[in-house]
């Protein structure tokens, strides 16, 4: 069982670490945890995100099959993120939009693109029990 102090670890490629810091810290508001010549680690909404310097970044931003992000339990947290994205003019792949309208799985979603074409999805279910 995961202890609340544990962090999920996600590692992604980054073509430029300065761009990654600009996007994740100054764009999304993640906290810079550590930085080395070949990688940078962030506190990404309570979990660990590592951007590894790589020439093998996605050629284009495609949401499926690979993306990551946060499923917000509270609608106001999703709304706050949408305002940050709009204010800071972050690159939006799609949304905000409503998915599965009229079903038990109805939720709002927003897909962003980082400077290395990694896709992030943020969402908020009408029924917070479905965030997992």
From TrEMBL:
Taxonomy of the source species: Bacteria, Bacillati, Actinomycetota, Actinomycetes, Pseudonocardiales
Record-linked InterPro entries: Glyas_Bleomycin-R_OHBP_Dase (IPR029068), Glyas_Fos-R_dOase_dom (IPR004360), VOC_core (IPR037523)
VOC domain residues: 6-125
Family annotation (Gene3D superfamilies): 2,3-Dihydroxybiphenyl 1,2-Dioxygenase, domain 1 (3.10.180.10)
Matches recorded under PANTHER family: PTHR39434, VOC DOMAIN-CONTAINING PROTEIN
UniProt name for this protein: VOC domain-containing protein
Pfam families per UniProt: Glyoxalase
């Amino acid at each position: 069982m995961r202890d609340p102090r544990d962090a999920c670890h996600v590692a992604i490629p980054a073509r430029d670490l300065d761009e990654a810091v600009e996007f994740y810290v100054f764009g999304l508001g993640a906290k810079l945890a550590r930085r080395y010549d070949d990688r940078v680690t962030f506190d990404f909404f309570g979990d660990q995100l590592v951007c590894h310097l790589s020439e093998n970044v996605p050629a284009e931003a495609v949401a499926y099959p690979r993306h990551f992000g946060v499923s917000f339990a509270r609608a106001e947290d999703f709304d706050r993120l949408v305002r940050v994205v709009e204010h800071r003019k972050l690159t939006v792949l799609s949304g905000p939009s409503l998915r599965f309208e009229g079903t038990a799985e109805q939720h709002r979603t927003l897909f962003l693109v980082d400077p290395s074409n990694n896709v992030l999805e943020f969402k908020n279910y009408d029924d917070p029990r479905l965030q997992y």
